[in-house]
Design goal:
Elements (H helix, E strand, L loop, with lengths): L2 E5 L6 E5 L2 H8 L4 E4 L2 E5 L1 H5 L12 E3 L9 H10 L5 E2 L6 E3 L2 H11 L12
């Protein structure tokens, strides 16, 4: 069943509902949200589809396909990253690089000669 997130504009309080699509449509009606206890909570699409907590904070560890390796090369990439001073694990099933923090990701990308143009402020 899908999970829907709703946010109250003034208080910032978030409600999480796991409903069928039919139940969600019934509760929302023509509105893009629900009313609970006389307060309107708008549908928070960004929180629903971002894969992050509704507070917007990044969830760590993060996995990267772009900075990853072929699954057969994970051990070699892990050893090389440790030798270069930025120990990084790679998922042996998917080949994804596993970053433990923003600074870890920034250090690894710099060491590997990769660039994240959407890295944001404060990385590094």
């Amino acid at each position: 069943m899908p999970t829907y997130r709703y946010r109250h504009r003034e208080s910032g309080k978030t409600l999480v509902q796991t409903w069928t699509i039919a139940k969600m449509l019934e509760e929302e009606g023509d509105n893009d949200g629900i009313t609970v206890g006389g307060k309107f909570y708008y549908r928070d699409y960004a929180a629903e589809h971002s894969g992050r907590p509704s507070g917007g904070c990044a969830a760590w560890p993060q996995r990267s396909d772009a900075a990853g390796a072929h699954p057969d090369q994970c051990k070699k990439f892990s050893e090389n990253s440790a030798k270069m001073g930025v120990p990084t694990e790679f998922d042996s099933k998917t080949g994804q690089a596993i970053f433990t923090s923003r600074s870890h990701r920034a250090r690894y990308l710099k060491m590997a000669g990769l660039h994240d143009r959407n890295g944001g402020y404060g990385d590094g």
